Amino acid sequence: MEKIYNYINGALVEPVSAQYIDNYMPAEGRVYSLIPDSDKRDVANAVTAAQAAFESWSGMTVEHRAAILQRVADLIDRDLDALALAESIDNGKPVSLAKVVDIPRASSNMRFYASGAIHFASETHITGKEAVNYTLRAPVGVAGCISPWNLPLYLFTWKIAPALAAGCTVVAKPSEITPMTAFLFSKLCIEAGLPAGVLNIVHGVGPKAGQAIVEHPDIPAISFTGGTVTGRSIAATAAPMFKKLSLELGGKNPNIIFADCDWEQALATSLQSSFSNQGEICLCGSRIFVEKPIYEKFVADFVKRTKELTVGDPLDSNTRIGSLVSQAHMNKVLSYIDLARQEGGAILTGGKRVIIPGRCESGYFVEPTVITGLDHQCRTNQEEIFGPVVTIMPFETEEEVLRYANSTPYGLSATIWTENLKRAHRVAAGVKSGIIWVNCWLFRDLRTPFGGMKQSGVGREGGWEALRFFTEAKNVCIKL
Ligand code: TXE
Question: What total number of domains does the chain contain?
Answer without folding.
Answer: 2
